[in-house]
Amino acid sequence: MKWIDEVYEERRFGALGQTVFASESPFQRIEVVETAALGRGLLLDGMWMTAERDEKVYHEMLTHPALTTAAQVRDVLVIGGGDGGTVREVLRHGEVRRCVMVEIDGAVVDACKRHLPTIGTAWDDPRLELHIEDGAAFVAQAGDASFDVILVDGADPVGPAAVLFSAPFFAQCRRVLRPGGVLCAQGGSPTVQAAEHVGAVQALRSHFSQVAPLYAPVGIYPGGAWSFVWAGDGSVDPRRPNAGRVAAVVDTCSWYNDDIHVGSFAVPNSVCVALSASA
Ligand code: SPD
Q1: Among 45, 63, 70, 136, which is least packed, fewest CB within 10 Å?
Q2: pLDDT in tens, 6-39
C-alpha cells in the first residue's frame, strides 16, 4: 500500500492504494491504481483523471446537459475520454446513431479497457467508432456541419490537452457542428483553476453566440467543484432539456436529473464578476 497523491499548487488530492499498472507512453505517464476509498482510478502525469467511485458525476454532467438540449443527437463526437466513461453515457441515448471518439493516446485506451472495465462498458457498442489520433487535427479535417454534439473530455490545460482549451480549436468545433448543435467541454476548477475556467468561457464566447458554464462536484479533482462549458448557436436553450431524452437516461444516472440539469447552470459569483469584468 502507498499514498497516491496529486499535488496541485501545494494542495494534495490523494488516497491510500497501490499501483495496478504503470507505463510511459509517447504522450504521458499512465497509472492505474487500486484504492480503498475511490476504487480503481486512472492518473495521467500524476493527475487524477477518473476513479470508480467518483466518475459518474463527471461523465453524466459532461454528457447529458449537451445531449438533452441539442436539436438532434444522431452524430456525436467525443474528443479525449480515453477511459470510456463519456462514450458510455453518450451511447445510453437511443437516438445516437454514431459516436466517434478521438483519443490521442491509444495506450490510455488499452490500459483502461484492461484495468478499468467497470468505467468503459460500451467499447463493443456497434455505434462507436474509435480513432487513435490527435483530436484537434481530427476536428480541423472534419466536414462542415457533420456532428450534432461535440464533447471535449480532455485533461487539464497543460501538456497534450492544452490545445483543447484554445479559441482556434473552438472555432473549428463551431464549423463542424450542425445548426442547433451543442458543444460541451470540461472547463476546469472554478476555484483553483479560475483563470483557465474563465478563459475557456471567453474563448468559446468568441465563436458561439450562447455559452453557459455549468458546475458539479468531482471530489478527486483540484478544488472539488468542477465545471463544464456548454456552447450553442442560440437556437436551443441550455436550461430547457428535452423531457423525453432526460427520461430515457435518468434511471441509470447517479447524479443527473431535470433539477440538477437546471441548477447546474447557476454560476458562482466569482466567475460572474470575472466574466463581467472581461465582457
Ligand atoms: N483535473 C483533471 C481533469 C480531467 C478531466 N477529464 C478526465 C477524463 C475522464 N473521462
Answers
A1: 45
A2: 665 544 566 778 999 999 999 999 999 998 888 9
